[in-house]
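Thread: iron/sulfur cluster complex, take 2
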Amino acid sequence: MSDTLALVRRLAAEHGLELVAVTDAEPHGEALDHLVRWCAEGRAAGMGYMSRHPPERADPGTLLAGVASVLSFAVNYHTPAPPFAAEGRYGRVARYAWGVDYHDVLLVRLRSLAGALERTLGGRARAAVDHSPILERAFAARAGLGFFGKNTCLLLPGRGSWYLLGEVLTQARIPAPRPGPAEHCGTCTRCLPACPTGALAEPFVLDARVCISYLTIEHRGPIEAALRPRLGAWVFGCDVCQDVCPFNRHAAPTGWADLRPERGVGPRLDLAAALGLGDEAAFRARFAGTPLLRPRRAGLLRNAAIAARNVGAVGCVPALAAATQDPEGLVRGHALWALAGLAPERAAPLADRARRRDPDPFVRAEAEAVLRGAPA
Ligand code: B12
Ligand code: SF4
Ligand code: SF4
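Output below.
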């Protein structure tokens, strides 16, 4: 290991960042090709930010002019927990969102490390995480931090995929040994049929248009009626394609207290309580500092309504009836659908009124479907 790399590792460890790998800052041509094809095939769904200027995501120079090296970091977010049980009232939260919003905690450490690197190695350095326009998994894979699984996640050999990624880009050149041959999934294909919506139609390619993670976090509009039952209990994100992965069988627990469930919402949400978050202020107060702010109040209540019907949460009927009068059409429409499944006699008069009077065409269409007795 070069002296510079040893120094970088020591500084990173002082910031709680134990897993680091380095690659040069050349644009990632192969990843760019995949990204361009992925977008052209419409698989980025409504994430317009992914399709805008793909070459910029493959070129670290976009984030830092004169960049020479990319440091990729992986942070364990795994907390062992009993299997999820809906118990007719809970929705399920993806593991990465159980604690404090990782963007905040990781970025603070990466920025501090970037400052330390500027002082010790010279040149400028810049921290990046998730929302930054860089193909994080591709650069981490090129650095040898892990390898692409068929579920498209970056898997760390011997550790699994419950890891978040972040980078520090630096103008200092950090010599690093070329990584050895990457590990791979071998003959395993478990995640592909396990995906509840068929979003992994082929290995290494995820179709966000039907991915539960996309639909419950990033998607802003209505969720197609045919897909709703397949969301199961998920109210925020989805972990199915990682839960089934044999590389995650012996995952170690996170050492970052902020990422533990007791610091945030934890693995499940009381659906009636979520549906009862009457306004933006109540929603913000409930989820402050957690990733669950991302879908906004209307998106989260949409998800909670769908999960309520899917898990047979009859205790949510009063909250759903109230939600059919919500100021947001997105909430009213999904609440009608959920109510129709849980308490058809309560749904019918509300749907009849909505069909005649609701100003939102989506809600009127949902009301028509309820009155027709549409199966989904
Ligand atoms: C957009 C996005 C999403 C979208 C699309 C996901 C996707 N697979 O593209 C949605 C909303 C669905 C999503 C979901 C999730 N996300 Co997300 N997401 C991103 C984001 C912002 C960009 C990803 C991207 O560039 N996608 C475009 C595709 C084309 O790129 P790619 O997935 O890297 O695909 C590469 C491979 O498929 C490869 N490839 C293609 N064909 C082939 C063929 C072979 C043979 C090989 C080897 C490779 C290969 O080339 C592609 C280009 O590099 C990154 C952060 C970032 N800035 O990179 C986080 C990120 C990928 N997400 C992350 C997380 C944690 C999640 C979820 C687990 C959250 C959850 N529990 O709900 C799920 C996982 C779903 C999944 N199976 O991927 C982590 C992943 C960490 C890890 N260990 O992999 C990231 C890195 C954020 C972070 N900073 O930690 N996400
Ligand atoms: S996150 Fe869920 S819906 Fe998306 S690909 Fe994985 S299993 Fe399928
Ligand atoms: S479940 Fe199997 S195929 Fe899917 S990512 Fe894990 S090892 Fe690869």
